[in-house]
Amino acid sequence: MADGELELLNGYLVVGAILFGLGMIGFLSRRNMITVFLAAEIMLQGISLSLTAWGRYYNDFGGQVLALLMVAVAACEAAIALGMVLMLYQRKGSLDIVVWQNLREESVPPYVDRELPEVLPEKPPGWPHLTPAGLAPKVPPEQTGYRPHV
Amino acid sequence: MFSIPVLVILIPAMPLAATLATALLGRRVLRGRSHVPVITALGLAFLASVVLLVQIATAPDFRSLHDFGSLRAAEARHGYEQIVTLWTWAVVPGASERGQGSGVRGQDLGVGVRGSGSQLLTPHSPLSTSNSSPGRHGPALRSNLRSSAPSTQSPNSPHDLRVAITLRADPLSAVMLVTVTLISLVVAIYSVGYMHGDPGYWRFFTYIGLFVFSMTMLVSASNFVLLYVFWEAVGLCSYLLIGFWYHKPEAAAAGKKAFLVNRVGDFGFALGVFLIWTTYGTLDFHDTPAASGARFQRAGHVESLSRNVAQPPSAVRRSPTQPGAAVPQDAGSVITAPGVLGQWRLAEPGRFVGGATGTAICLLLLLGACGKSAQLPLHVWLPDAMEGPTPVSALIHAATMVTAGVYMLARCAPLFAVSPDAQQVVAAVGGLTALVAAVIAFTQNDLKRILAYSTISQLGYMFLAMGTGTASGSVAGMFHLVTHAFFKSLLFLGAGSVMHAMAGVIDIRRLGGLRRRMPVTCLTFLIGSLALAGVVPLAGFWSKDAILAALHQRASAGDAPAFYQGLYWLSLATAAMTAFYAFRAFFIVFCGPEKVSLEAGEHPEKTSPWMAVPLVVLALATIDVGMHLELTGSLENFLERTPSIVALSREEGEEGERGSRGVEEWRSGGEERTLRTLSPSPPLPLSPSPLSIVLWGMIASAAGIGLAWLMYLGSPGVKRRLTGWMEGAGLYQLSAGKFFFDRVYEVLVVWPLEGVAQLAAWFDRVVIDGLVDLVGSVPRAVGALLRPTQSGLIPIYALAMIVGLLVLLGTLLAS
Question: Which of A12, A130, B407, B769 is the most buried (most CB within 10 A)?
Answer without folding.
Answer: B407
